[in-house]
Backbone:
């Protein structure tokens, strides 16, 4: 196979050599393992990271200790569906809604739900955060891995990330926390009082995340947890 040549010396379009060298192996092979399950992945969605399994762990552990027998869980920004599907497989009594602003991401998430034989347990909804009309029932748990990379840092990310993964799944605004502020405000405006909120956050967001969470949920217990590399990774509000 020959090397692709740019249309002009000023073109920013990557060469074939650049594509093969830098494209994430998960996109090349078309799948990834997450929480002992297999998920299809391509350029429509962010590649699930091992660190996100900690978010799933927190919710499963909470449900084991919770008095709620049939928890209603909302996964916001589902992407490939990895969080919602992993929860559905491990919490057979849970009812799960999963949202995403991208129709393309939702198509892939539905495909992954069918692949893992869990499609009848998850309700997929196209929505910008909580701008959808349902669900009408009370939400017990919110899980979310929203874009949280500060916008100014994106051009400096590894080429395998910034040149191939969708920016809409990376860009968290000026300080990386814009979408979480918007989400917290929407939860407050809707009058929702979920018992447990778990968010994946940037490693620089420890103090910021706790301050913002307490601003919107002054009566809640707020904490952050680190991943196996001891980087701040999870914000918990309960």
Residues:
């Amino acid at each position: 196979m020959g090397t692709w040549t740019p249309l002009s010396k000023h073109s920013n379009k990557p060469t074939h050599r650049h594509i093969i060298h830098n494209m994430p192996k998960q996109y090349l092979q078309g799948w990834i393992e997450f929480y002992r399950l297999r998920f299809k992945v391509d350029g429509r969605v962010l590649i699930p990271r091992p660190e996100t399994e900690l978010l799933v762990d927190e919710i499963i552990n909470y449900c084991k200790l919770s008095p709620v027998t049939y928890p209603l869980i909302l996964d916001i920004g589902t992407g490939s569906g990895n969080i919602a599907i992993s929860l559905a497989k491990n919490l057979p009594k849970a009812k799960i809604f999963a949202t995403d602003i991208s129709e393309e991401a939702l198509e892939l998430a539905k495909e992954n739900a069918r692949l893992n034989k869990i499609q009848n347990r998850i309700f997929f909804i196209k929505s910008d955060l909580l701008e959808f009309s349902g669900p009408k029932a009370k939400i017990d748990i919110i899980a979310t891995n929203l874009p949280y990379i500060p916008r100014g840092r994106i051009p400096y990310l590894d080429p395998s990330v910034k040149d191939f993964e969708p920016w809409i799944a990376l860009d968290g605004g000026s300080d990386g926390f814009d979408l979480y502020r918007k989400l917290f405000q929407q939860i407050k405006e809707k009058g929702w009082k979920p018992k447990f909120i778990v968010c994946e956050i940037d490693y620089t967001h420890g103090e910021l995340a706790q301050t913002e969470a307490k601003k919107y949920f002054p009566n809640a217990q707020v904490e952050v947890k680190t991943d196996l590399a001891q980087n701040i990774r999870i914000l918990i509000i309960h």
